[in-house]
Amino acid sequence: MARLKMAHKPVPQLDGTTRTRLCHRWLAAACQLTRMRIIMATQVRQALAAGLNREEAVLSVEQTQLEVENLAAAVQEVAHEAEQQRLTLPIETLSSQGELDALDRDILVLAVAPHVDVDIRDAIARFNDNLLANYVDVRLCLEFLVQDPVDRLAVRGRFAPDAGLRRARLVSLERARDGSDNLLSQEVLPAPRAMQLLLGEQGLLDTSMSGLATFLNPEVALHDVVLPADALGPMLSLLEQHVRRQGLRAGSAALALPHGLVVEISGPPGTGKTMLVHGLGHHLGRALLEVDAGRLNDLPEDALRKNLYSTLDQARLGDAIVVLDGVDTLLAKGSARVDTVQDLLHNHPGITILTSRDTGNLDMNLDRFVVQRLMLETPDSVLRRRIFELHLPQGVRFADDCDVPALAGQFTFPGALIRNAMQVAVNRAYARDPDHPVITEDILNKACHEQIRASLDEYAVRRKVGLTLADLIVPGETSDDIQELFTAAKHRGHVLHQWGFSTKMSTGKGLVALFSGDPGTGKTLCASILANEMDQQLFQIAIPRVVSKWIGETEKNIEKIFETARAAHGILLFDEADSLFASRTKVDSSVDRYSNMATNMLLQEIENFEGIVILTTNLEKNIDKAFQRRIGFKIHFPFPEAQFRARIWQTLLPRSCPVDGAMDWELLGERFELSGGHIKNAVLRGAYQAAAEDSPVCFKHLEFAARQECKNAGKVFRASGYDDGF
After folding, report:
1. Are 228 and 383 in contact (CB under 8 A)?
2. Rounded Cα–Cα distance for residues 615 and 467 (Å)
3. Which residue, 631, 635, 617, 625, is CA-closest to 512?
């Protein structure tokens, strides 16, 4: 993705110490000013009680008035210094977010002061003429901040639930200490997050949110997030315009739209959702408040509301983006929490980003407030190559023989698995040569294989052999066809991804081969050797585990097999495929209809599968014609003739096995018309007899075993002049 233009010119940031110091100086000066104003108000009260009139009482506190003016000047001096440093003081942020006027600000500072200034409680107690009444209640706010009794009645409305301070949840009212419900007696308490912000403590969360949320300043540059071209454009434009629109004042036509913005980013694990969210936060110049939506969903309803309220308040005050990470359970279809979350997000003025694995599993009511969705998929080979290269540290290089494009084509990994593979490869490169670390193809290939976690054990048997193509004894024509298939498998990634053939094909990018022939002629063995040559896992699908008597279950099993095979980067082997890939029939009953549905599902999955699929059958004519068209390689394995049977007998005996030097392989091949599978059984049976006699494997052992195998298979054989001794 090309480097993107910033949404706004970045403002030089103060270092944390300087910023915190300025915030502390302002708050200390503001609290001292409030304390001195309370002292002056107390002195005026005392003067009035002594018989002086209002004018005389004010004149009597002239010295205190001078101190108040000096402290007010000190507050303004700090504010001016912050402005020069291009720092928005927390009180300004709170005023903007809560739409506070001067009186609201005075109430907020008065509520905060007892928690900051150690001497102000004594001043409050003297003002109240009660040593126990050393806290801020509504009565104190009215009597201290408002002189006119009529105006005090109007100011009572400042403490209503829908008034600025309480609507923004900057202060709360606590029941009077005497237990009464009188508004005037209720204590005014500052919200912890407002205290934290005034103290310059950015990113500190309420203690109730510990382990539930994280406040962070993202460091991922958006141009380092690898996405398809133009995939992010619409969402990025929307977010940028929302940031600009937040600066508009009431009365603008733009504010006829909702104040907040909710978007969703979905995709399978590892596809880059978190990295993209961090990149967006960095690009927009906003901090992130990430909330674990799964843990949020585990909370009781009251606790959920409280923590989500706290999250939104914290984000609003810190001008941060709310990220509800992993909402798949919280906002699942039919979840009772959907309305709760929607109600709380409705009035949030900032940006909220939801992340999920599959947007299709979320409740449809989300469409009412999620204005845009971005669905991430596993990156294509070109993007995967870029991700491999992005994770290459300085001082480390790929070896000349390391074909990164081919590996990127072979392993259809999401970004997270590529990162993990590169981490393993880099460490191994350093272990091999700490001074000149080089990632070879062998290192990177093994690191990629180690990231494969998917398993098809529910439907398939894993096969792994240590044989090569030289161990496969077939006629020349069959050998040529097999070699062509192997060549295509090895160079498929290069042709598709480096030569660009994948851009010309929407489907049919995989390899489909049909192996036909009698039982035991080497079809399954050839598939195993192909997997070994390709260094891939072979999954032999157990057809009875796939086909189900329950309606729809067979289709689900087929879908899961191919989905898991993509993640496991394995080769699929459907043995005796004619039973599963049979020709579709005329629909005369519901059984026929559902049988045809399973066949259609197989056709669709094979068409979209980009890996290797091998079908084996003894009855090729039973394979559906639609499958025949999709089969790129058809290889027939004929029953072996005598010369090939002799070679199979000889090849199946390992070098470590003692064999009689006078063994007549040609005679064995001529006398016994057995396929490779039956010969394998006979070789093992003869070896058992030789081991029992503690002698090398002789002709008599193999002849006896071959005769027994022919009897079991119902085959005739020629008599021999050998005395088998059995």
Report:
1. yes
2. 20
3. 631
